[in-house]
Amino acid sequence: MSNKTMLGDASGRGAVDGFRVTCPAMQHPYTEAEIDAVVKVMREACGQTQGKYMVEFEQAFCAFTGAKHAFAVNNCTSALKMAAIFCHIQPGDEVIIPAYTFCASAIPFGDLGAKIVWADISPDTWTIDPDDIARKITPKTKAVVCVHLLGMPCDMKRIVPIARAHGLKVVEDCAQALDCRIDGQHVGTFGDFGCFSFHSAKTMTTLGEGGMFVCADDADAAAAPGIRHNGCCAYPADRARYWSPAMSCVDSFLDDRWPQNFCIGEAQCALGTEELKSVIANNNTLIEQDRKIREKLAGLPEISFSRCPENSRYVVHQYIMHYDGSACGKTRDDLLDLMTKKYGIRCIVQYYPLYRYPLFQRKGCGEFDCPVLDKWWDGSFSFPWWCGMDDAVIDTLCSSLISAVEELRG
C-alpha cells in the first residue's frame, strides 16, 4: 500500500497511517513502578554504570533463570559477541547457525572470521533441526548456535549430546525466549552460553536496548567482566600508594582476544530488575492470546502453526503462521494483498532466510542446503502482535484472515 505513511522501523513494528491494525513498537507500555525505578537512579549522585543496580539485576536474572553466572550488557548482539569470543573462534572455523533467525544470531561469529554453515529448521517447531546439525558437523566445526526463535524452545535434549560428542561449544540465542523452559529448566542454561535481549520489541525491555550474557563455566565467568569493560580491573589492594601507578589497571583476560566495551547503564539495570517481576504474567497473557487465535482459525486448513514440544513452555514472542494456498493456486503475497488493501490489516513478513540477504552473500555465506526452510518460508507471515490485545482486536484479525482465505479459495 504505497500511500501509507511509515512511522515505525524497518522491521515492520511501529505505527503506520491508514491501517485498522498495525504492530506497535513495544510489546507493552512501562508501568509506573518501572518508571519510578529509572527516575530513582537519575536522582542519585552515584555513577550511572557498573554499579549496584547492575549487580542487583544480574543476581535477579540468575534467580529467575537458574543461570550460574549472568552479566548485563548493552544488547543481545554484544552478548552473542561475548559468546563467540569465549568459543575462541578463529578465521576458518565453522559455526552451525540456523538460517531462519534474526541476522544478529550470525553476525558476531562471521565478524570473527567463522565460516557460517546454515542449518535447516524442524518442520514442527520451526527452530534448528538437530538432525541437520549432525549432518553438517565437520572436523572444522567449532560451535553450534541454537536460536529459541519466536519463544519456541529448540530440542536441547538432543542438540547438547550431539555437540558434546564432537567437542563443540553450544551457544543459545534466547533473545526472544525469556521465560521459555524445557521440563522446567530455563533456556540458555543447557549449553555453554546463553544470550538474552531486552530490546523494545521483547517481552521486557530496558529503555529500548539491553542484554544479558550467561555462562556456566567459572573460568569464563571470571574473565567476562574484563572482556565486557575494556580490560579494566583493579591493581592489588595492598599497594603502598592507592594512586600508584594509576587508579585502575588494564589487562588481558583471554590470550587470543582484545577486550571490548559492552557496558549497560544503571538506569537500564534498575528497570530490568523491576520488569523481571512481570515477565511470567505478561507471557501468560501472550499464551492466552495465542490460544484464542488458534481456536478461531482452527477451521482454516490453509493456515498452520508451529507445534511446541511436550513439557516445554512456548512464550509466543511473535505471531508467525504459514499459508498454503497451493490448492487454489494462490500465494502468501496474494493473501497479504487482500489483508492490507481490503481489510486494513498490516501483517509482517520477517526473518528472511539469512542466506538470501546481500550481506551474507557478499561475505561468502550464500551457500545453503535447507530444503525445509526454503520451501516453507515463502508462505510465512505474522499478525500484528503485542501483550494485552483485547478480544475485539483478536476478532478483527481472525475474521479478516478467514474472509481473505475464503475469498482466495473461490
Entry summary:
34% of the residues lie in helices and 14% in strands. By secondary structure, the chain is of the alpha/beta class. The protein folds into 2 domains: 32-278, Type I PLP-dependent aspartate aminotransferase-like (Major domain) (Aspartate Aminotransferase, domain 2); 279-409, Alpha-Beta Complex (Aspartate Aminotransferase, domain 1).
Would you give an account of this structure?
- The longest helix is centred in the last third of the chain and has 19 residues, at 391-409.
- The chain is α/β, with parallel strands linked by helices.
- It folds into 2 domains: 32-278, Aspartate Aminotransferase, domain 2; 279-409, Aspartate Aminotransferase, domain 1.
- It has helices at 32-43, 52-65, 76-86, 107-111, 130-136, 156-165, 218-228, 266-275, 279-296, 332-341, 358-362, 371-376, 391-409, and strands at residues 69-73, 94-98, 115-119, 141-147, 169-173, 181-182, 185-186, 193-197, 211-215, 232-233, 249-250, 303-304, 312-313, 320-323, 380-382.
- A 7-stranded mixed β-sheet has the order 1-9-8-5-4-2-3, with helices on both faces. The protein has a 3-stranded antiparallel β-sheet with strand order 7-6-13, with no helix packed on it. It has a 3-stranded antiparallel β-sheet with strand order 12-14-15.
- Helix 1 (32-43) runs antiparallel to helix 8 (266-275).
- The protein is globular.
- The two termini are 24 Å apart.
- Strand 6 (181-182) and strand 7 form a beta hairpin.
- The relative contact order is 0.16.
